[in-house]
Amino acid sequence: MNKKDPLKKILSEREIEEYSKVLRELMSDHSSILEERPTLAEDTVRKYYLISKFKETREEKGLSIKEVSSELKIPQYRLKAIEQGCGSELKPEIFWKYCDFLGISDFVFKWIDQNQELSKRLGLLEGNDKDGGK
């Protein structure tokens, strides 16, 4: 992986497996959590590369959360939820509006293609008319 700019590409399945293994090792003291949610480490690795793209792109454009919030008429906490990967706070319509605003749709569609199951659980495939409702 390119250490200078790791978000220019989407992780391969092998990379996800490797990073997930490291994360599970780091979380070994919390084995009960991993037992309750066996895909937690993998989901975390997969989501990281998606949510990081939002923050990285916003910052590259020199925008604050407050400025984006004002421009899109979206509460700051909703934008922060996207950038922090808070699935329970994720609202797909806001996600797609933010995605369009930042101009990262191509990246997100590629990410979704490689992360179908997680995308479904996050609600990113439901009702998205941009891609034919996948």
Description of the molecule:
This protein is mainly α and 134 residues long. It has one domain: 434 Repressor (Amino-terminal Domain). The protein is built from eight helices and no strands. It is globular and about 45 Å long. It starts with 12 loop residues before the first helix and ends in a 12-residue tail after the last helix. 18% of the residues are buried. Residues 127-134 have low confidence and may be disordered.
> Main β-sheet: number of strands, strand sense, barrel status?
none
Which architecture name does CATH use? Orthogonal Bundle
How many β-strands, per DSSP? 0
Share of helix, binned: 55-70%
Broad CATH class: Mainly Alpha
Count of DSSP H/I helices:
8
Q: Which structural class do the helices and strands define?
A: mainly alpha
Computed over alpha carbons, the radius of gyration is: 15 Å
Number of domains: 1
Written as H for each helix and E for each strand, in order along the chain, the element string is: HHHHHHHH
Ordered list of secondary-structure elements with their pairings:
Layout lengths: L12 H14 L4 H6 L3 H21 L4 H8 L3 H9 L7 H11 L2 H10 L1 H7 L12
